[in-house]
Amino acid sequence: MHHTFRLIIDCPDQVGLVAGVSQFLADHNASILEASHHTDLQTGRFFMRHEISTDSINLSYDRFIEEFTPLANHFQMEWKLTDSSKKQRVALLASLESHCLVDILHRWHTGELHCDIPCIIGNHPQLKQFADWYKVPFHWVDFKTLGKEAAFKQIEVLLDEYKIDLTVLARFMQILPDSLCKKLAGKVINIHHSFLPSFAGAKPYQQAYERGVKLIGATCHYVTSDLDEGPIIEQSVKRISHSDSATDMVRKGKDCEVNALAHGVRYHLEDRVIIHHNKTVVFA
């Protein structure tokens, strides 16, 4: 992976913005490897993602932030600069279904996902075998014995102890409490096994079967206090027919789930997602 700085900007749309950023980068000999822009005409917001080669620019990470700040303040930017060499620490939470967990672990193990996975947390012990295979510490949090409040407190402590940057709910079938949703806003990704906003909640494939739909899907989204209503990052669909049973839909839907989740996690890790109200701008 080429070593880069990623400059992410969200600000009011205004004349001279792109020119100002471009001039700043040119003044410091920066080579732009990838540039993405988008303007939301309804809200008047401008979004930008630049990937900058560190081999070219004559600024260190800290010096870049120091010198760019006056320009950012002038244009009222909400912005961040990230270093592609710094791996985010990702925690995987799962219950009984293994397909999403194993897919993420495989993509991490083969280097497709540029991150560290220091822990896996499960509310059932069965998935420990996969954690052991990938040599990742596994923590079983027994909700039945502890109760939900104490169980989630234990999960929160684990996330803090491991200094987790991103929490991925890989078919974790427990609803996060409001306090944790707010604490980790924009840092928890869930995979829901339906094409939201259709069939939110429990047993979506059964709901889809009873409705007689011709498409099923899965939705990767950020977690908020509103169940299954957080900003959508990625969706995947698959066509079905009248001959597909509810069981067939579950089997086919798993393909959608692993693909949508993997893409969504990668987009987040590569700073390609900007949350804007209850929507996202994704520079895929």
Q: State the low-pLDDT regions, or none.
A: none
How many separate domains?
A: 2
CATH architecture assignment name of the largest domain: 3-Layer(aba) Sandwich
End-to-end gap: 17 Å
**Top-tier CATH class of the largest domain:** Alpha Beta
Number of helices: 9
Q: Main beta sheet, described?
A: 7 strands, mixed
CATH superfamily of the largest domain: Formyl transferase, N-terminal domain
Global Rg? 21 Å
**Mean pLDDT figure:** 95
Give the helix/strand class.
alpha/beta
Q: Beta-strand percentage?
A: 25-35%
Instruction: Write the H/E string, N to C.
Output: EHEEHEEHEHEHHEHEHEEHEE
Percent helix:
25-40%
- Number of extended strands: 13
CATH fold group of the largest domain: Rossmann fold
Catalytic activity: (6R)-10-formyltetrahydrofolate + H2O = (6S)-5,6,7,8-tetrahydrofolate + formate + H(+)
Active site: 228
Domain ACT: 6-86
Enzyme class: hydrolase
What this model shows, in words?
By secondary structure, this protein is α/β, with parallel strands linked by helices. It has 2 domains: 4-83, Alpha-Beta Plaits (2-Layer Sandwich); 88-282, Formyl transferase, N-terminal domain (Rossmann fold). Helix content is 35%, strand content 30%. It has 9 helices and 13 strands. It has helices at residues 17-27, 61-74, 99-109, 128-133, 143-146, 148-161, 178-183, 204-211, 246-269, and strands spanning 4-12, 32-40, 45-53, 78-83, 88-94, 115-122, 138-140, 166-169, 188-192, 215-222, 232-239, 273-276, 279-282. The strands form 3 sheets. The chain has a 7-stranded mixed β-sheet. Helix 3 links the parallel strand 5 and strand 6 (115-122). Helix 3 packs parallel to helix 9 (246-269) and helix 8 packs across helix 9 (246-269). The two termini are 17 Å apart. 32% of the residues are buried. The mean pLDDT is 95.
